[in-house]
């Protein structure tokens, strides 16, 4: 059964189509020590996790659900995260984080984040938290209660 926008009632239907479109991507090459340092720092920083990583994962999960996921655009989003991580690293360690981690290192980190998260995105781990039928119920509740 389809709703007014042409979406199916199966919440994972569009997700499955998105997974098929992405297909099997090549794995990232071996990682440099600088890229690994940046990723370890970012993965263990609560502010970066909350303000950058989680929104990116949710955004990409929604793209996967819609079937419009593009690994190259995803890598660009992860590059923004790598830039934020480098700036934060510089502030905490004393120095210029973007000078400590060259653009090539930040691109490499972004490539690894994209390849690592692709599997969890394919499994639907970071998609829309409200399936289509729950979205309609939530909208009705919000309308009734003024939220």
List the defining traits of the structure above:
single chain; globular; 0% strand; 70% helix; 7 helices; 147 residues; mainly alpha
Describe this structure as you would to a colleague.
The chain is mainly alpha-helical. It has a domain at 30-122. 70% of the residues lie in helices and 0% in strands. Helix 1 (13-22) packs across helix 3 and helix 4 packs across helix 6 (103-122). The longest helix has 23 residues, at 71-93. The protein is globular, with a radius of gyration of 18 Å. The protein starts with 12 loop residues before the first helix and ends with a helix. The mean pLDDT is 79.
How are the SSEs placed, and which strands pair?
Layout: H1 13-22, H2 33-43, H3 46-66, H4 71-93, H5 97-100, H6 103-122, H7 132-145
Helix pairs in contact: 1-3, 2-4, 2-6, 3-4, 4-6
Helical residue percent band? over 70%
Output mean pLDDT.
79
Strand and helix order? HHHHHHH
Percent of residues in beta strands?
under 5%
The major β-sheet equals: none
Uncertain ranges: none
**Any idea what the radius of gyration is?**
18 Å
- How does the helix and strand content classify structurally? mainly alpha
> Helix count?
7
Give the CA-CA distance, first to last residue: 29 Å
What's the shape? Answer: globular
Q: How many strand units?
A: 0
């Amino acid at each position: 059964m389809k709703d007014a926008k042409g979406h199916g009632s199966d919440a994972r239907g569009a997700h499955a189509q998105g997974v098929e479109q992405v297909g099997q991507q090549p794995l990232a090459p071996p990682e440099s020590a600088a890229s690994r340092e940046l990723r370890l720092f970012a993965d263990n920083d609560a502010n970066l996790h909350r303000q950058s990583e989680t929104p990116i994962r949710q955004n990409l999960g929604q793209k996967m659900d819609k079937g419009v996921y593009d690994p190259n655009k995803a890598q660009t989003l992860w590059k923004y995260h790598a830039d934020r991580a480098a700036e934060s690293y510089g502030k905490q360690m004393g120095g210029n984080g973007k000078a400590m981690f060259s653009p090539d290192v930040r691109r490499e980190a972004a490539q690894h984040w994209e390849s690592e998260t692709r599997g969890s995105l394919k499994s639907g781990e970071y998609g829309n938290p409200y399936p289509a039928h729950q979205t309609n119920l939530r909208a009705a509740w919000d309308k009734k209660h003024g939220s």
